[in-house]
Write a structure and sequence with these properties.
17% of the residues lie in helices and 31% in strands. The protein has 72 residues and is an alpha+beta fold. The chain has a 3-stranded antiparallel β-sheet with strand order 2-1-3, covered by helices on one side. The chain starts with a strand and ends in a 6-residue tail after the last helix. 4% of the residues are buried. The mean pLDDT is 87.
Length: 72
């Protein structure tokens, strides 16, 4: 089973792009190796200190945050 390091899962309103103003669920993973100079979440660049969890568990948590209002 696949696993990943989760930085955070949260609900917010999209602030840019074609979905600006719409409710979104954001999933931020940790341990990104890219080091983009425009990264707005430098705390998630390293996996250390973040929860390691399965893809199935991540999916369940995203659905829980989204609630019944999510479109499938």
């Amino acid at each position: 089973m696949k696993e990943g390091f989760v930085s955070e899962i949260f609900e917010s309103v999209q602030g840019e792009g074609p979905y600006a103003g719409e409710r979104q669920v954001f999933l931020r993973l940790a341990g990104c190796p890219l080091r983009c100079n425009y990264c707005d979440t430098p705390g998630s660049l390293v996996a250390r200190g973040h929860e390691k969890t399965t893809v199935d568990d991540i999916h369940k948590r995203v659905v829980k945050v989204a609630g019944k209002r999510v479109r499938t």
